[in-house]
Amino acid sequence: MIKTIKLKLLLIFLLFSSITSIIGIACLNFFYEREERFHIVNLLNSINLNTAILHYYEQYYINYESKDIAYHLSHNSKYIRRHQRLIRSIESEIRFLSQNGPIYSTQFATRLDSVIAELKAYNKTFKKLIDNIEKRGLRIYGLEGEMTKQMTLLNQYTRHFPKEKLLTIERDEHAYKLRQEKQYLYDIEKSIIDIKQNLSGSQPIRKEINGVLDKYFTATSNLVMLDSIIGYDHESGLNGTLLQHNNQISFLIEKLNQENDLLNDKLKKEYNIILFGVILFGTILSLVLSFIFSHVVTDPLLKMTSYIDNIIKNNFELTTPGLHMRANDEIGALGKIINYMVKKIQVNMVQAREYLHQIEAKNVTLIQSEMNFRSTFDQAAVGIAHVGFQGNWIKLNHKLAETVQYKHSELLQLSPDDITNINDRNIDQENIQKLLERKIKNYSVEKRWTSKLGYTVWVDITVSLKYDAAGEPEYFIWVVQDISSRKRAEEDLMYKNKELDTFVYKVSHDLKGPISSLKGLCHISIVDCKDLGSLKYFKEIEKTTNRLNEIILNLIELTRLKDGQIAYSKIDIEDVTNTCLGSLLHLAEYKFPKVNIFNNLKKDFYCDVRFVSTIIQNLLENSIKYSKGNDDSFINISIEDKKNEIALTIEDNGIGIDKEFHNKIFDMFFRATQQSEGTGLGLYIVKNALEKLGGTIEVKSEEGTGSIFHLHFPNNRETKSGV
Asked: What was the pLDDT predicted at 366?
């Protein structure tokens, strides 16, 4: 006993497949035969069409090309060549049909053989026709050429017979060529007899004329005979025979078509019977399969569907009874699985309800958190806004509106650009792009906003991005702080610094004269003083005066650097370095280290020569003053090209600088060692000059080993020259 649905369905499928295969093979065989029939029809139609074309080539040759003098001159005819190729093509199609096509009757095969026989007889007759036409000739060729030749000779003897008779012969010859009637041959013969009877002249002359007349008549008689054989009237002769062959071939092909049509009609009837049988069998098979599937599959599945609907209506309650299946097959196994799944779902539903209660509790917390966020957003001490990528407000708090003295609703009607100074609107485009490309997390920018009352409000805006759950940018977050008070304080400070710089400059200039006088007096006193104790004091005064003079000169230089404008020009930095070294020769009390210059500069350098000279001179002066004074002391100066800048490195092996002072050496009046005799302004001036040019400076130094200063000057090549 078959107990599994799989085996039952497999047997049904095998039975169905076998019957379907048998029907399919029968249908394929039918369609194959039908296709073969269509192929036969196409071949027969092609043969019929080629036969008609054959007749066209044949008639064109007889009626036109054979009467063209060029053909008789060359014996070359394109229509004969086409005619012969077409005959070979027709024979090939018939042989293919006879050898490869399905032959359904002996009569069909016999007719195919008859067509081939007729075609051969037709071709044989056509070749005879060609031979006779070429023998007949035209004008100066063939028999007609012979007639023309003899007529030319007769015209030379017209004094020996009546010329009217010769003209009569020519008229009758011309009339024959037009009408093809034998009566004209008799008239020509009669005229020749009359000429022979009326000849004059000597016996040799008369004999020669008779010979020419006989040759002319013989050629004319043969031409008339060939015309009769050719049959230019299309009813007799070879031409008539060709027509008969054509008609017979067409008749045979028509009979083949009729027989093929009868077989096609029979095939259609068989096809209708097969189609009816297939439909009837399919209907019966569908009913049988429907009954089997209903008993084997559908009824149990309907029971399962009803059970599942009942479970769903009861919301998977645990009290719902289980599914009971009697079938001991896959359906029964499926029923057990459904029972198991329903129980699992019922258990999971209980867990889901518990989880739902937890989610509801979390939602309450989330709502409370949202309310807290809104409260923080609205009550924050700084302005906060959400800004779209199109430059529009999405959301903003009341503090931001108060900053520019607008109502909250009024400011929402405007855009950030509407309240931003026109010169500040696009100053942060580069940072926005970096933010969108995730190169930076946030940035800050200072902008001028215009309040509702029209005055300027300085704000500091910190910009970051809000991302959605998919990690895509959603909008900008602005944190806005009013810095107008700070800006006013900065302006006041700048004003006071300017006043202080002016005061320092004026005081320095005012002190410069007295200091110079004091130096002169000290020098005279040292020269004139004979007392050693007093001389010692005068030297100390001179030393202090020189130091005070140096401070005043540095302060004047610093003031000039701060207030001066940058004038760009082409600089030979090696020449500038040598000039600075020459200006330091007055430091005779110090032992000069060995100076090495490594110039690897390959492109032009454009900068302010005054600033560059001040920077290099101060650094070289420090290297000389704080050298160890040994024979191996050195200063190495390296100049190199960098991208859009020039790198200058000054290295020495002097006393060096302790690392704890590296961050202070650029401060005003700072001295890193007790040995320092300077003013504490040199490196301060260097840093200010570099910052003015837009450059940078870095220091690497250890106490006792020396110092390395790395300087980077921007190369303003696009500026070339000018301020």
From this structure: 66
Q: How far, in Å, CA of 315 to CA of 305, rounded?
A: 15
Range list of H helices, 231-293: 237-293
Q: How far apart are CA 189 and CA 204, in angstroms?
A: 22
Does the CA dihedral 29-31-33-39 come out positive or negative? negative
Nearest to 713 by CA among 615, 595, 621, 579: 615
Beta bridge partners of 594: 634
Is residue 384 within a helix (H) or strand (E), and if so which, with residue range?
strand 383-387
Q: Which residues contact 277 (CB under 8 A, 6 or more apart)?
A: 23
Are residues 577 and 596 in contact, defined by beta-carbon separation less than 8 angstroms? no
DSSP secondary structure letter of residue 420: B
CA dist list (Å): 295 to 292, 338, 343: 5, 20, 28
* pLDDT-flagged residues of the chain (< 50): 1-3, 720-723
Which distant-in-sequence residues (6+ apart) come within 8 Å of 185 by Cβ? 176, 220, 221, 224
Asked whether 90 and 51 are in contact (CB, 8 A), the reply is yes
Contact 518, 543 (CB under 8 A): no
End-to-end CA distance of the chain: 109
Report how far residue 312's alpha carbon sits from residue 651's, in angstroms, rounded to the nearest whole number. Answer: 88
* Strands 634-642 and 594-599, bridge-based pairing: parallel
Helix pair angle (573-583, 609-625), 10° resolution: 50
Residues contacting 18, CB < 8 A, separation 6+:
none
Contact 611, 689 (CB under 8 A): yes
- The 3-state DSSP composition of the chain as helix, strand, coil percent (nearest 5) reads 65, 10, 20
Residue 631 CB: number of other CB atoms within 10 A? 8
Residue 698 host element (H or E): strand 696-702
- pLDDT tens-digit map of 294-311: 666 666 666 667 767 776
**Phi/psi at 604 (nearest 5 deg)?**
-70, 145
Question: From residue 227, how far is each of 177, 183, 354, 432, 514 by CA, in Å?
Answer: 10, 14, 119, 106, 152
Please, is 585 exposed, middle or buried when counting C-beta atoms within 10 Å of its C-beta (0-12, 13-18, 19+)?
Answer: exposed
C-alpha distances in angstroms, 434 versus 23, 37, 477? 74, 78, 15
The identity of residue 356, as a single letter, is: L
Strand partners, 477: 386, 464
Burial track 591-630 (b if 16+ CB lie within 10 A, e otherwise)? ebbebeeeeebeeebbbbbebbbbbbbbbbbbbbbbbbee
CB 161 within 8 A of CB 226: no
> What would the 3-class secondary structure string for 341-383 be?
HHHHHHHHHHHHHHHHHHHHHHHHHHHHHHHHHHHHHHHCCCE
363 half-sphere exposure, CB direction, 13 A CA radius? 6
**Helix, strand or coil for residue 267?**
helix
The whole-number pLDDT of residue 723 equals 39
CA 170 to chain centre: 86
> What is the structure's pLDDT at 327?
55
Q: What is the three-state SS of 279-313?
A: HHHHHHHHHHHHHHHHHHHHHHHHHHHHHHHHHHH
* CB-CB neighbours of 372 under 10 Å: 10
Residues linked to residue 656 through DSSP beta bridges, in sequence order: none
Q: Which residue has the tokens 């010329």?
A: 163
**Residues sharing a CB contact under 8 Å with residue 592, sequence separation 6 or more, in sequence order:** 624, 627
User: Rounded to an integer, what distance in angstroms lies between the CA atom of residue 31 and that of residue 26?
Assistant: 9
Helix H or strand E encompassing 607: strand 605-607
Report d(CA 399, CA 407) in Å as an integer: 10
